[in-house]
Amino acid sequence: MHVDxxxxxxxxxxxxLVGMTGAGGGALMTPMLILLFGVTPSxxxxxxxxxxxxxxxxGAAVHLRAGTVNLRLVRWMVxxxxxxxxxxxxxxxxxxxxxxAQDNIEVALGIALLVGAGAMALxxxxxxxxxxxxxxxxxxxxxxxxxxxxxxxVGGVIVGMTSxxxxxxxxxxxxxxxxxxxxxxxxxxxxxxxxxLTLSAALGALVFGHxxxxxTASLIxxxxxxVxxxxxxxxxxxxxxxxxxxxxxxxxxxxxxVGIGATELGWxxxxxxxxxxxxxxxxxxxxIRPAVAGPAHxxxxxxxxxxxxxxxxxx
Length: 315
Description:
By secondary structure, this protein is an all-alpha fold. It is built from 13 helices and no strands. Helix 2 runs antiparallel to helix 3 (41-66).
């Protein structure tokens, strides 16, 4: 069993993003293994699923301890997602694992994620202008059972047919069903509901897939500590920092699914970061410090005018 240090490093980066945003695991990890390390697609998907089964419970445990998980939402989502994952696997079996069918599903998923990322960015800008904070705690939300089960079904079918994409899509759908949800509670709930879904997918990978235990060990060594750090950040960092990170990872996932190559994807993401950073600098102007009244300023306010002092001396 060979452990690759470069795969360990790459999986640590992806694990950090998963811990911070709850999304992007399969969308980023699997392409990284295929494009950068030459792993065959079937082995990359199966090994990633097994590693994810050990990675996501770590993030879920951090959020459970922090109280940022709504177990009622998790229950309704799991009711829909776990059976749907087996349904997706069965549909893929009926299609004969046709590559064209998977490609069409991933392109449709990519378009949905890009629309969702754009909607998240627009909502973030509008909320900032209106002074509205999306900070309602998940535990205070009233679950909508039918809508929440539907989210689980959609995510489960997709993970059953493509093995990737459920986390990003479920986060987008949760944001639209529960628009006032705080980002850290959103990440915690999504990571927790993904545990049983990932378990069912990992069991399928072990039985029917091509798992490389050396590759899986490399992914676990890198991703598990990183997802722990990312989850600690997402459970405590303010919403205004976590939500843009979620939108960025979902945007990157969407680009990857619609067929953008690795090089083009890198340049696009760098350009987005540059534009976003420039916009933030123009809006926030951190180099301008607000005037603060100090002791000297207060002393000037209480001093009498100079002409009154002159008049006192003359008398």
